[in-house]
UniProtKB/TrEMBL annotation, chain A:
Taxonomy of the source species: Bacteria, Pseudomonadati, Pseudomonadota, Alphaproteobacteria, Hyphomicrobiales
Annotated SUPFAM superfamilies: MetI-like
Subcellular location: Cell membrane
GO terms for biological process, alphabetical: transmembrane transport
Family, similarity comment: Belongs to the binding-protein-dependent transport system permease family.
Record's keyword annotation contains Magnesium: no
Membrane association type: Multi-pass membrane protein
Record-annotated membrane-spanning stretches: 9-30, 101-119, 131-153, 197-216, 256-277, 297-316
Keywords: Cell membrane, Membrane, Transmembrane, Transmembrane helix, Transport
GO CC, any one term: plasma membrane
The name this protein goes by in its record: Peptide ABC transporter permease
Organism of derivation: Devosia insulae DS-56
From TrEMBL, chain B:
Domain of life: Bacteria
Pfam short name (any one): BPD_transp_1
Entry-linked SUPFAM superfamilies: MetI-like
GO terms of biological process kind: peptide transport; protein transport; transmembrane transport
Protein name in the entry: ABC transporter permease
UniProt lineage: Bacteria, Pseudomonadati, Pseudomonadota, Alphaproteobacteria, Hyphomicrobiales
Family: Belongs to the binding-protein-dependent transport system permease family.
Subcellular location: Cell membrane
Domain ABC transmembrane type-1: 73-262
Transmembrane stretches, start-end: 12-35, 77-101, 113-130, 190-218, 238-262
Keywords assigned by UniProt, alphabetized: Cell membrane, Membrane, Peptide transport, Protein transport, Transmembrane, Transmembrane helix, Transport
Length: 338, 272
């Protein structure tokens, strides 16, 4: 177990290094010019050079890469060109909002995936179910988000369409408003946070639910036809019991892998949804950094998201081996370091 | 399985989906001639709702939305096909070499493929495009940079399977040149699996490219790009819903058609 975790950790570092290197290697080919962005379009060459020197942009690329790696190890991700704050401080400031949204989306997505899989099992081979899932899988995330905003917020007025809370000035220890509201015994705040959270979380959750639900449905379909399940039915277990106690564990591996893949795709969706719902998280921060070619911020957030992705996937591999012990922890299947 | 068998096994609904994909491609190719108005010029008052003369209404400058969406379809579909095409060629070359030679060549190439496969694709595409600077070419480059790995893996696995078959053993025994062996006796066997993967994969590329475009990493302002058109008219949602919704719906239609065609191909292949 320890050896396994250690190997995964090496894999984590390898992927992060590869990501950082990829971006740095390309930076040398066509540099976007943040010095120009700071100094202004009309700035004379001397000012531009001074800004460049100050930012360390005039050094050779390998030097910049080495310096960057050295700093990252110490937790220093550089200074954002746009906000002029340390990137790490910016990340700490905006991460809780994204964490809240992402976790809520994963929760809703997993629940919906189960529902989709059950519907899939109830109506096997149904063209309507198949078409619905394919349509949902073809919908760009911003269309989902826009339709939710338009109908649920604007037309029906059921839920708020922007922001995290109706009133400013509340903050708690975790930064996750829903949990902080509960911790502070402020049901009004918790309810308000929940109402703001529902729509964006649903938008982020839908692609996850569709992909994982399809995978789970197909996987269950295959497992529930196996002889051992027939034996369970034969000894008098109800269909539900056979599924929950014996089928699910064997069917869990592929949908869990799909969940891991979807977490990787979720980061892009978080950016879009946070932009549409004015959700002040890391995704919105990233979108604003794109607009100003703020490379330190873009790199920092990418590495942060990349780390979350890999930690989540280690968790998923452990869940896979818990569900099905035959997937040996010693014999991992994907990974750079293996 | 040959292409003719594949075609015969495909039902008419699935055939329809394949025809629809071809139609989208034709539409994308002919967009500049089909567009009723110049997509970059003010041709009517701004914010006209959809009508007979302007099917999708007009935008905030008074440009014809139908023409712009048509151009947007071109700018989404053709680059996506190009990304898939290049990734398929590069990936299958690597996969063929890796699978054919085996041994340490296979080991090295597969470890490299692994590395690219486990990178979180959207995240890397975003970071790379942002680093290179916004633009269509950079978006495509950022995607191609690691998109080949998926095709390399598929090809390699298929090749390993084929190499073990007697017909390949017989072909090798005749002593023909390895290049001919690979092109005539391995590549055709790999093609169906690649074709299915590619048709389903186009959807992923279209969705990721429009996501990048929405986030402002696509072509700069005046260009008609579906994702960016939605992003720029977000504020118009309440007053002029068609401005952000129609371009996004066009992306959905493209993906739906491609998904159905891919699904059809896959299920007809699985029938074998």
């Amino acid at each position: 177990m320890l050896a396994y975790l250690l190997r995964r950790l090496i894999g984590l570092v390898a992927v992060l290094l590869a990501m950082a290197f990829l971006i740095f290697a390309l930076q040398g080919i066509i540099p976007a010019d943040p010095a120009r962005a700071i100094a202004g379009v009309a700035a004379p060459v001397e000012v531009l050079e001074a800004v460049r020197d100050k930012l360390g942009l005039s050094d050779p690329v390998p030097v910049q890469y080495g310096r960057f790696l050295g700093r990252v190890v110490q937790g220093d991700l550089g200074t954002s060109i746009r906000t002029r704050q340390p990137v790490l401080a910016d990340i700490q400031k905006y991460l809780p909002a994204s964490l809240e949204l992402g976790l809520a989306a994963l929760l809703i997505g997993t629940a919906l995936a189960g529902l989709f899989a059950l519907v899939h099992r109830r109506f096997p081979g149904s063209a309507v179910v198949r078409l619905t899932l394919i349509t949902a899988g073809s919908t760009p995330i911003f269309l989902t988000a826009l339709l939710l905003v338009y109908f649920v917020w604007f037309r029906l007025g059921w839920l708020p369409g922007a922001g995290r809370l109706s009133h400013r000035g509340f903050s708690g220890p975790t930064g996750l408003n829903l949990i902080d509201g509960l911790l502070a015994v402020r049901p009004d705040i918790a309810l308000d946070a929940l109402q703001h959270l529902l729509l964006p979380a649903l938008a982020v959750a839908l692609p996850i639910a569709v992909a994982v639900g399809r995978s789970l449905g197909a996987s269950l379909h295959e497992v529930m036809r196996r002889p051992y399940i027939r034996t369970m039915r034969g000894k008098g277990l109800s269909e539900g019991e056979a599924l929950w106690r014996h089928g699910l564990r064997n069917a869990a591996s592929a949908p869990l892998a799909m969940l891991g893949l979807q977490i990787g795709l979720m980061f892009g969706n978080l950016m879009v949804v946070e932009r549409i719902f004015a959700w002040p998280g890391l995704g919105l921060y990233m979108v604003q950094s794109f607009a100003s070619a703020d490379l330190p911020a873009i790199l920092g957030v990418s590495l942060a998201f990349g780390s979350i992705y890999i930690v989540a996937n280690i968790g998923i591999e452990m869940a896979q081996s818990l569900a099905d012990p035959r997937i040996g922890l010693s014999r991992s299947r994907a990974g750079a370091a293996d | 399985m040959t292409w003719r068998e594949l075609l015969r096994r495909t039902g008419w609904v699935d055939g329809l989906a394949v025809v629809a994909v071809l139609l989208v491609t034709l539409l994308a190719l002919a967009a500049p001639w089909l567009a009723p108005f110049d997509p970059q010029l003010r041709v009517a008052p701004a914010f006209l709702p959809p009508s007979a003369s302007h099917w999708f209404g007009t935008d905030e400058i008074g440009r014809d939305m139908f023409s712009r969406v048509l151009l947007g379809v071109q700018g989404t579909w053709l680059p996506a096909l190009a990304v898939i095409g290049v990734s398929m060629v590069v990936g299958s070359c690597i996969g063929l070499v890796s699978g054919y030679f085996g041994g340490w060549v296979d080991m090295v190439l597969q470890r490299a493929t692994d590395l690219f496969l486990i990178l979180p694709s959207v995240l890397v595409a975003l970071a790379v495009t942002a680093t290179l600077g916004p633009g269509l070419i950079n978006t495509m480059l950022a995607l191609m940079l690691f998109w080949w790995s998926w095709y390399a893996r598929i090809t390699r696995d298929e090749v390993r399977r084929l190499v073990a078959r007697p017909h390949f053993e017989a072909a090798r025994a005749t002593g023909i040149h390895p290049a001919r062996l690979i092109l005539r006796h391995l590549l055709p066997g790999v093609m169906p699996a690649l074709a299915v993967a590619a048709t389903l994969d186009v959807v992923n590329v279209v969705l990721i490219m429009s996501l990048l475009s929405f986030l402002g990493l696509g072509q700069p302002a005046p260009a008609a790009e579906l994702g960016a058109m939605t992003a720029r008219s977000l504020d118009s949602l309440v007053a002029y819903w068609w401005l952000p919704v129609i371009p996004a719906a066009a992306i959905m239609l493209i993906c739906l058609v491609a998904n159905l065609a891919g699904d059809a191909l896959r299920s007809s292949l699985r029938g074998s």
